[in-house]
Amino acid sequence: MGFIEVPMPINASIVAEIEHLQVLTPTEQAALAERIELLPYKAGATIFNYGDPGHALYIVRSGEVEIFVKNDQGEKIVLEVAQPGDVFGEVSLLDDGPRTAWVSAVTDAEVLRLDREHFEDYVRVYTPAALNLLSVIARRLRKSDEMIRRTVTRNANDVSEERKTIPEIIADTVANLAGSVGSVTFHAIVFFVYGVLNVGVIAFIKPFDPFPFSFLSDLLGLEGIFLTIFVLASQNRQRARDSVRSDIEFETNINAELKIANLHEKIDRLTETHYQVFMNTQKMLELYPGKRP
Fold it and tell me: What does pTM read for this prediction?
């Protein structure tokens, strides 16, 4: 399995190091310590492989542990880097199936192992442990959902819409309206009516803002300030959208490069196989020259 020493029994002080087990009484910690073993692993050592029987639950005591899977192209997908106090290996114990991922030590690490025969007592008696398992499963499910979503090519506009806030919606709406033909028409009508009302051409209407329309100038100044703010906010949104688009293009390019590299490897293996077949055929023809067609 990759550990460098045989499992070692532990005492209650080691159990007390685990955060979600610190709520246990000293007696409960001592009882649990009798059921747990300590396993040391060197950096790079495999703790268990995909498809292995799931006969134990693990808790990281020190170091870092990498939990990963591989897709159909053989690409490594890291689900989580477990830190001290984190739990892994719970899925196989819950559904009594094989391991669903590979786990290896990123650094020199020590993990606590709880065998299946003690797992049910561990969950039933130690309520914080059961709650911790639920949080671990939920966190990894969210991570898996996000990774599955990212494996599909995404639309930058859709991603931007998902992240849009109400102030950003207002800024985009105002900027779009200000730059439209309707806005030009609206301002032209307002200026014409305002001018007619204030140049004195209508005898029974007294101008309230005579030429040169100082009040109108103040209003236009205020409008210009607010429109500038909205336009700048909308431009910031566009820059954020461009950044998302760049990230998506980068991810797509990386995915394409990995697939191309995988195709190259397959072609190289196929070429090598055909070459070996050719060489074997040539040797057989040399050994049996009378068999030539």
Answer: 0.47
